[in-house]
Amino acid sequence: MPKRVLQGVVVSDKMKDTVTVLVERRFTDPVMKKTVRRTKRYHAHDAGDSCKVGDTVRIRECVPISKTKRWEVFTGETA
Fold this sequence. Notes:
One of its GO terms (molecular function) is rRNA binding. The protein has strands spanning 5-12, 18-28, 35-45, 56-61, 69-74. It is mainly beta.
């Protein structure tokens, strides 16, 4: 099964080897037919502490690393 890939903005880098990424998705409301924006925050593993607040990053699913971390920051190459 392919791993999901999301793109978002780093909103926190205060933890060691972890960044918080804000991912926004847009969809059309089925009843009102208006475009709706929904955001969600993901904790992602950043092994080298290379990401800073404000960076746009891509994250992908991985095996559980901790209680809240199931995503990792990656550069875009296929692994």
